[in-house]
Design brief:
Pfam families: Fic (PF02661). The chain is mainly alpha-helical. It is about 60% helix and about 5% strand. The protein is elongated.
Length: about 350
């Protein structure tokens, strides 16, 4: 798994190369490349698609294309498959596969139906998100990137329904940390028979319970992470005040100063250059550079050279919190009994 630091550094380098043909810098870990693509696609899912009057199959194609940038499968991304695919088993034939999706001739109509479902208002947004993900994974419309695209659609649904707008809950991370339950839930959803059969309803219920368990952990972890960020910010304020007092300056700068505004941005952009800070704050390059150097002097950010002649400033405290959050989700055990309505 890519570390938070590797991901943040790669995202920074990609931002520095805006306007160039998307490609991963030399020596970049493939898992970091994949995670950054996920981050960029999720931003698209919770911003662009949140504001769209309706989600279309072409919008979903665009998400998948964003996820495949810079990978070996980038060519041809953004188009539904024209061949039969399958999950598990041999790469030569679907014999012995764990799951065989619908034939390619049925995919366009199924994607139209799914896009309409995503666009509809729903009284139970979490159920809508759960069904959207499971149905997308069952259609398996692309030759690659289906899992990542399906997980991005979770956040599209939540944002469109007014939940976690502008933010991404770590639901995907929780699902992937519990791969056995995740796969079992999807397999239960894929009941072969009449949708009204009791066994089919039990399968759907089983999948929704898996999804709700992941969501419950994601919400709890997000709350804990928010508390930890607030404590970290208090520590930063103390470091900055101490640094400035040693320089015979007043304890803390004004709230609208570049250095304070930059501290507010660091949790979302933990690796930044002076040029990036200039853009983030809409200030001069000199002001951005001065703010970063002040934060470095206070020990709030650390300096690293990421490209020849370009220094990055890293908020390692934030990166450490992110890694700790990932570990907690990975080792969190699920208690399905707490999701029983009769409990």
């Amino acid at each position: 798994m890519a570390s938070a630091r590797a991901v943040a550094e790669l995202e920074l380098m990609l931002g520095m190369r805006a306007g160039e043909e998307p490609r991963a810098p030399r020596g970049v870990d493939a898992s970091a490349r994949e995670v950054v693509n996920n981050v960029l696609a999720l931003r698209q899912a919770v911003t662009v698609l949140h504001d769209s009057p309706a989600v279309t199959p072409e919008d979903i194609d665009s998400l998948q294309r964003a996820l495949m940038v810079g990978t070996d499968q980038a060519e041809g991304a953004g188009s539904v498959r024209r061949v039969q695919n399958w999950v598990g088993g041999s790469g030569l034939s679907p014999h012995g596969a764990e799951f065989v999706p619908p034939p390619p001739s049925e995919v366009p109509a199924l994607m139209d139906d799914l896009a309409r479902f995503i666009s509809e208002p729903h009284p139970l947004p979490l159920v809508q998100a759960a069904l959207t993900h499971a149905q997308f994974e069952t259609i398996h419309p692309y030759t690659d990137g289906n899992g990542r695209t399906g997980r991005a659609l979770i956040h599209t649904v939540l944002a469109r329904q007014g939940l976690a707008v502008g933010h991404v809950l770590p639901i995907s991370m929780s699902l992937l940390a519990h791969a056995r339950e995740y796969i079992a839930g999807l397999n239960a959803y894929r009941y072969e028979g009449d949708a009204s059969d009791p066994a089919a309803l039990v399968g759907v219920d089983g999948w929704i319970r898996v999804f709700l368990a992941a969501t419950r952990d994601a919400v709890a972890e997000s709350r804990r992470f928010t508390v930890e960020l607030a404590a970290m910010r208090t520590t930063w304020d103390a470091r900055l005040a101490s640094f400035r007092e040693k320089q015979k300056r007043r304890g803390l700068p004004r709230k609208d100063s570049a250095v304070v505004r930059l501290m507010e941005q660091l949790p979302g952009v933990p690796v930044v250059t002076a040029r990036a800070a200039q853009s983030l704050l809409s200030v001069s390059f000199v002001a951005a550079k001065s703010a970063l150097e002040e934060l470095a002097g206070a020990g709030i950010v650390q300096v690293k050279e990421v490209e020849r002649g370009t220094r990055a400033f890293m908020a390692t405290d934030v990166l450490d919190l992110i890694n700790s959050s990932e570990r907690r989700l990975t080792y969190q055990r699920w208690d399905f009994s707490a999701l029983d309505p009769s409990a």
